[in-house]
Specification:
heterodimer, A: 7 strands, B: Aconitase, domain 3, five-stranded parallel β-sheet
């Protein structure tokens, strides 16, 4: 299993699409590593600077419909090669969410009021998230503030993460 | 209890149900293109599993960047081409025979009512126009599809949209789907299938139904589906005449894939098009739509007519009606990319290409190209494009460019005026 958790990047916007996560002009790359410098290059978000804001981050918290648009798995791959293995949002576009689990990564959905609380409580300062995968819990820490939130994963998605992805699972089973 | 179309297809294709709400389906079609397939091929080779489940059910095309624009895109094409050859994939479409996948594959008769279809491309939902369950997937799902002929889906709920009323002249399928997306939002159908019903759909050509289903994903839908009817049979007849004694026999068989009268929908929406106006997008999301009237006068640098949404013959025909005998504005670059060689040939033979050329359009070969900012009409920063494509995302057609989505009629009228404007086909 991949390591989950670390410094959190807050992206305060809904409907962040996969063209923004990794623009189509980089889809000609066959190696995932080549996507690394281009993550979130076209993100439309006031004040966001990918070079500065992505440094050292291992998790993303965002709003609604994260990963909408194109089916490109290059979006999770671009996150993966940057060491970001978990995205927390109110909800995800179907293909992006499935791509995350198919790659053994985590797309965690939390209710809107909790996402709101995360932005309010942790959105401004340096924040870390700890992922208790066996017990489905996230713990956010910023300075002295520490809060734990339970989450729910579809058992199939959890199995995929444990199996190391869909190819291994399907090849063994079908 | 009755079933929706998706429920019928899921029940008839289920291989496994590893968890209560997860269904592993047998696939009738796995479509491939050169952007998302090479990484799957590469991974299969690396795992020592360079096999395909059934070369006859896999169809492949080089369409996103064709002809190749550089070494990288040439390599992507080569990986797909070599793979198709070594696995005996007969239906592989290379340069000269290639076109935009979601226009080309229907034209070849590859999709039938009741089929399950996946492709590493979000606009795969287009094929639902034939009464199929067709869904875009990522590379890993595609890879498993190629290897095992299966794909896992959560059981989708179905949203039924009844398109009612009589569309005014000059209002097309593109305006209807933009109107629907504007109403339900880019997240309005996530994890849902949209079933399109109603007299307006019944009267629609298969090409218009494809335009409609194509953009279902822009509302987040897994698939957009129209139920099979006489028009479906008529479109498919050249491909199925050996299978059925008559059209009515084909229709009777396909009717098993209609939804039951007592099917249960999560939600039913009536969308009345009687007063619908031609629409255009204004922001960076496909649900940001306005009547063309309210955007009238917005200057454009480029007009692009093409793509899996609106690059079919019917689209070119409508645009040509508007362009006939006119010149496009001197400060506008007009680009027409017929979606397939067949569309190109018909447009050539019927004189439509001449109308475009005389109006000042550049006619390119079939390719996805500019729609996703790959080639053939990428925008410079600050430029504005009136486009018949499907996504107005920030940077989609080129970093810093702005895209306004619209119908081919509106795009043609805009090319002539140099600013966004209604087509003369629209009678207020």
């Amino acid at each position: 299993m991949k390591p989950f958790g670390g410094n959190v990047l807050f992206l305060d916007r809904s409907d962040i699409n996969t063209d923004e996560i990794i623009p189509a002009r980089y889809l000609t790359e066959i190696s995932k590593e080549a996507l690394k410098p281009h993550l979130l290059e076209d993100l439309k978000l006031e004040g966001f600077d990918p070079a500065r804001d992505l440094a050292g981050k291992a998790a993303i918290v965002s709003r609604k419909n994260f990963g909408c648009g194109s089916s490109r798995e290059h979006a999770p791959w671009a996150l993966e090669v940057n060491g970001i293995h978990i995205v927390v949002a109110e909800n995800f576009a179907r293909i992006f969410r499935q791509n995350m689990f198919n790659c053994g990564m985590l797309a965690v959905e939390l209710p809107g009021e909790i996402i709101e609380e995360l932005f309010r409580t942790f959105g401004k300062g340096a924040t870390q998230v700890e992922v208790d995968f066996p017990h489905d819990r996230l713990t956010f820490t910023s300075g002295k503030v520490k809060r734990t939130y339970p989450y729910r994963l579809n058992p199939f998605d959890k199995t995929l993460v444990e199996a190391g992805g869909w190819v291994e699972y399907a090849d063994a089973k079908y | 209890m009755g079933k929706t179309i998706a429920e019928k297809i899921f029940d008839s294709h289920e291989v496994d149900r590893p968890f209560p709400d997860v269904r592993v389906l047998r696939l009738d079609r796995v479509f491939c293109h050169e952007i998302t397939t090479p990484t799957a091929i590469d991974d299969l080779v690396r795992r020592g599993k360079d096999r395909v489940f059934d070369p006859d059910k896999i169809k492949a095309v080089i369409d996103h960047v064709s002809p190749a624009k550089d070494e990288k895109t040439a390599l992507q094409g080569k990986i797909l081409r070599d793979w198709a050859r070594r696995h005996g994939i007969k239906d592989f479409f290379d340069i000269g025979a290639n076109g935009v996948c979601h226009a080309l594959f229907p034209e070849k008769g590859f999709v039938r009512p009741g089929f399950t279809v996946i492709m590493g491309d979000s606009h795969t939902c287009t094929h639902g126009a034939f009464g199929a369950f067709a869904a875009g997937v990522g590379t890993t799902d595609l890879e498993v599809g190629i290897l095992k002929g299966v794909c896992a889906f959560r059981t989708p709920k179905t949203l039924r949209i009844n398109v009612v009323g009589k569309p005014p002249a000059g209002v097309f399928a593109k305006d209807i789907i933009l109107g629907i997306i504007g109403k339900i939002g880019v997240n309005g159908a996530t994890d849902r299938v949209i079933e399109f019903h109603g007299p307006v759909i019944d009267a629609m050509s298969m090409e218009s139904r494809m335009t409609l289903c194509n953009m279902a994903v822009e509302a987040g839908a897994t698939s957009g589906i129209c139920q099979p009817d006489e028009r479906t049979v008529e479109y498919l007849w050249p491909f199925i005449r050996g299978e059925y004694a008559s059209r009515s026999q084909a229709l009777a068989d396909y009717s098993r894939w209609k939804s039951d009268p007592d099917a249960e929908y999560e939600k039913v929406i009536d969308f009345d098009v009687s007063t619908l106006e031609p629409l255009v997008t204004f922001g960076y999301k496909p649900d940001q739509v306005k009547p063309v009237r309210e955007m009238e006068g917005t200057r454009v640098d480029q007009v692009y007519i093409g793509s899996c949404t609106n690059g079919r013959f019917e689209d070119l025909e409508v645009a040509a009606t508007v362009l006939k005998g006119k010149k496009i504005h001197p400060q506008v670059r007009g680009i027409l990319a017929p979606a397939t060689p067949e569309v190109y040939r018909r447009a050539l033979e019927s004189g439509i290409l001449t109308i475009f050329l005389e109006a000042g359009f550049c006619v390119t070969n079939p390719t996805c190209g500019a729609c996703l900012g790959m080639s053939n009409g990428v925008l410079a920063p600050g430029e504005v494009c009136a486009s018949t494509t499907n996504r107005n995302f920030n940077g989609r057609m080129g970093k810093g460019g702005m895209i306004h989505l619209m119908s081919p009629a509106t795009a043609a009228a805009t090319a002539v005026a140099g600013v966004i404007t209604n087509s003369p086909l629209y009678a207020k």
